[in-house]
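$ fold --in a.seq
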Amino acid sequence: MRVALVVVGALVLLTGAVFAGQGLGYIPGSIMTGDMKWFWIGSAMVVVGVVLGGAGLVRPARKA
């Protein structure tokens, strides 16, 4: 479960970073380019990704 949280957190973080980059206009070629709404959505996704990844890293392992 811990590894899954870290992987999902990393994927959400990377996707959010791309959304934020497109929203700011740094990554061209999409309908999201230059639209600040996508920057805010991406920023929220980055925060969620960090929380999920951090929870996977900090959470103690279960004893089998």
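$ fold --in b.seq
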Amino acid sequence: MKKNEFKNLAVAFSGPSNSGKTTLIVKVANILQDSGLKVCIVKHDPKDKARFDRPGKDSDKFSQTGADVAVVSPNRTTMFKQNSSTIDEIVEMFDSFDYLLVEGLKTLPLPRISIFRNSLDETYFKVTNAIACDETINKSEIPSSIDILDLNNPESVIQWVENNAKRVK
């Protein structure tokens, strides 16, 4: 597939801890990939908890120097940059894809699905285009300007993404 044959669509997912963001993204990514589409995922780590390899291993020692590090193996390349990347830099790094799924990064100007279970957090409303929720949420409390999706129906989430994601290339 040539580079220009990819969809290059990006969408973001937000929500409180343990709301089901990762679970939904995994379901969506698996369905899309099972359909033959190329998916890339970006995970926001606001507390710098992500580790690069295990302490004492070479890649950890390299990253501790403050240098940017890439580990290249027969089946993957793992990058570790010492500073944050813009969405444009990330898009360039991934090069060709159909869907870029971003978890977190509320400041990115991307169409956004917020995920809620048990309670709504209105502070997300101003950055949210759609809410994926389950039966524990009172949908009448969601502003009419925000689309409502079924958290337990990843196909409906994919349809929303297909119709609303931002083309980033």
